[in-house]
Amino acid sequence: MAEKLKVFLVLIVIGLSDCSVQPEEHWTSLIFWVPNHSTFFGRSCLRQSHHYCLHTYERENNNRNAILPDGEHLSPLNRSAYEHMLQMNFERIIRPMWRRINFFAEFEEAGGCCATQVAKYVHYGYSKQLTPHEYYEKLVDYTEQHKRLNFLRAYFDPTVCLNFIVEVGFGTGPMNNDIGFLRQQSRLAFPPAPGVHPRLFSSENPENEITFHWFKHNIMCVSQPWICNEGANDINGDRNNDEFRKRRKLNSRRKKQQSRKYKYPSYCQG
């Protein structure tokens, strides 16, 4: 009887292990605008950079009305003061850095700081229970681990029959289906930019071809060389090492190419 009970319990344990559901990976994404002449945000970005503009870090949060733990028991008046303090803290963090990370304002500030940047913290950071420092750390985390293409918008250009990318995001979780106005049978490309070597990508499963490594080294670092020179998470970095000197020579060559902008040929058939 004891042996039968033991076998029965083992079968139950095996059954439970086979039926266990792995938790889904939370969706997070570091999102960039790509300068272009066809979209509002693309044109706004183009006034500040020929290569990219950092839009935001976004993540899922089921409790969108949640506030940070330190403020959960405050009265409405004190809570308002607490939220204002967080906004001021983020402004102090971002003011000396916004140009260095291409975190531009796209509306009335015409590239200035910091009302729009603070508003993005409130919407994408504070509402998702991130402190000012935590949100900033997400904005400047350019390590390549756990950054897979999961957000993309593009528009189809009938003059060359290519889908030009206007917004792109890298992070965790599945690919976002809001991919804009593209033609599936045509390939993807980033709009021409000075010093950027052109490349075409497949529209089918673009996450397999458009990697954060490629985007960082071929677009971000052309605009902001420190990202590749000094390490992904060290804004100040060590300027005395061999890697920095090697990168400085590479960037010197890239600067000479800044005036050269590739023009895509037509890929239309018939």
Give an overview in words.
By secondary structure, the chain is an alpha/beta fold. The chain has a single domain, classed as Ribonuclease T2-like (Ribonuclease Rh, Chain A, Alpha-Beta Complex). The protein is about 35% helix and about 15% strand. The chain has 8 helices and 7 strands; from the N terminus they run αβαβαααβββββααα. It has helices at about 1-20, 40-45, 75-95, 115-125, 130-140, 210-225, 225-230, 240-255, and strands spanning about 30-35, 55-60, 150-155, 160-170, 180, 190, 200. Strands 1, 2, 3, 4, 5, 6 and 7 form a 7-stranded mixed beta sheet that branches. Strand 3 and strand 4 form a beta hairpin. Helix 3 packs across helix 4 (about 115-125). The longest helix is centred in the N-terminal third of the chain and has 19 residues, at about 75-95. The radius of gyration is 23 Å and the shape is elongated. Mean pLDDT is about 80; it is low at about 5-25.
Could you say what the CATH architecture is?
A: Alpha-Beta Complex
**Which regions have little confidence, pLDDT < 50, spanning 5+ residues?**
4-23
> Can you say what the CATH homologous superfamily is?
Ribonuclease T2-like
Distance between the termini: 79 Å
Counted by DSSP, the helix tally is: 8
In terms of DSSP E residues, the strand content is 5-15%
Kindly identify the CATH topology.
Answer: Ribonuclease Rh, Chain A
Main beta sheet, described? 7 strands, mixed
The run of helices and strands is HEHEHHHEEEEEHHH
- CATH top level? Alpha Beta
